[in-house]
Amino acid sequence: MKKSPNHRLSDHVLFALGRSSQHAQRLVRQHMTDGGVRTQHYHVLASLSDDGEAAQATVADRIGFDRSDLVTLLDELEELKFLARRVDPADRRRKIVAITPAGERQLDAMDELIRAAEAELLEPLTAAERKTLLALLRRVSGD
After folding, report:
1. What is the span of the domain harbouring residue 97?
2. What is the CATH number of the domain that holds 118?
3. 3-state secondary structure (DSSP) of residue 61
4. Lower CB density within 10 Å: C or N end of the chain?
5. At residue 86, what are phi and psi to the nearest 5 degrees?
6. Residue 56 falls inside a structural domain
7. What InterPro entries does the record tag this protein with (predicted)?
């Protein structure tokens, strides 16, 4: 990431956080692409694994995706056998989506790609600095 020492906001935390976030997102996309996977698939699988099966509309709302765009992702993931869809017995018009064991294995592999991107991002920091950074970011974000 190139430095912008002359930018009017370069001494502000928000500017530094924004640039760091952009760099982190680039690294994640790069590692996912190099791994032959899509970050959008990660969001769907992580939601299903972490929050449980749900109606398609609920999954879209959880991850902030347009409902019609999500259908394409679900079709792709179902074709790859990473998720399964079934009719909701309470409302036959709705589909319930669940992650499969193959989807859990794929999610684990994608988690490794994200960890590799994070290691690359944080490489200049010591282990103690990494812990401090995480603690500070959690405080700022209210976690």
Report:
1. 15-141
2. 1.10.10.10
3. helix
4. C
5. -140, 160
6. yes
7. HTH_MarR-typ, MarR/SlyA-like, WH-like_DNA-bd_sf, WH_DNA-bd_sf
The residues near 49 (Cβ < 8 Å, ≥ 6 apart) are 99, 103, 104, 107
Q: Model pTM?
A: 0.83
CB atoms within 10 A of CB 36: 8
pLDDT along the chain (143 residues), means of 10: 64 88 96 93 97 95 93 95 94 94 97 97 96 94 82
Residue 8 lies in a domain: no
CA distance 76 to 87: 18
CB-based contacts of 51, cutoff 8 Å, min separation 6 = 62
What DSSP designation does 82 have?
A: S
Task: Establish if 135 belongs to a structural domain.
Answer: yes
64 DSSP assignment: T
